[in-house]
Write a structure and sequence with these properties.
The protein is an alpha+beta fold and 155 residues long. It has 3 helices and 9 strands, in the order ββββαβββββαα. The radius of gyration is 15 Å and the shape is globular.
């Protein structure tokens, strides 16, 4: 069975003298004590009949609890095939938000394993701003390319 593609928005802001990007720390028990490689661009899966940019905007709002910038120019950063085979498409958009106020949607899973108990966890348990150099070791390895592409676009 083919994996559904994902789409996301990489929110960035200009701070003197650098650019910062907003990343979300992945929620759930697997990621709870991890930091390096445990942050992600807000993104999510979409079906063939959904516009990828519309899906990226929807996922941004679901994972952060706030609408993405409305009147902004969305800049395509293209596609990346991640190690597991999933294709992720990302757009960069300039904007700002208070990362301490995010409220993510949740997912359910059996936890602890083989306990028969299901628990809900936030998809993103926190968000933060990182300059591009600091973001590289934080973000999931397959998404580093999007940081490089943003850096190239912004010069």
């Amino acid at each position: 069975m083919a994996r559904l593609p994902s789409a996301g928005l990489l929110l960035y802001r200009r701070t003197d003298p650098q650019v910062e990007v907003l990343l979300g720390h992945m929620g759930g028990p697997f990621w709870a004590k991890k930091d390096s490689g445990a942050w992600s661009i807000p993104k999510g899966e979409y079906a063939d009949d959904e516009d990828p940019l519309a899906a990226a905007r929807r996922e941004f709002e679901e994972e952060l609890g706030t609408a993405p910038p409305d009147d902004a120019a969305y800049q395509p950063l293209g596609d990346v095939r991640q190690r597991g085979g999933k294709v992720v498409t990302v757009w960069a958009v300039e904007g700002d938000l208070d990362a301490t106020t995010i409220v993510s949607n949740t997912f359910e899973m059996e936890w602890p394993p083989k306990s028969g108990r299901r628990q809900a966890f936030p998809e993103i348990d926190r968000a933060d701003w990182f300059d591009l150099a600091s973001a590289r070791p934080k973000v999931v390895g397959g998404q580093v390319e999007f940081l490089d592409r943003l850096s190239a676009k912004l010069g």
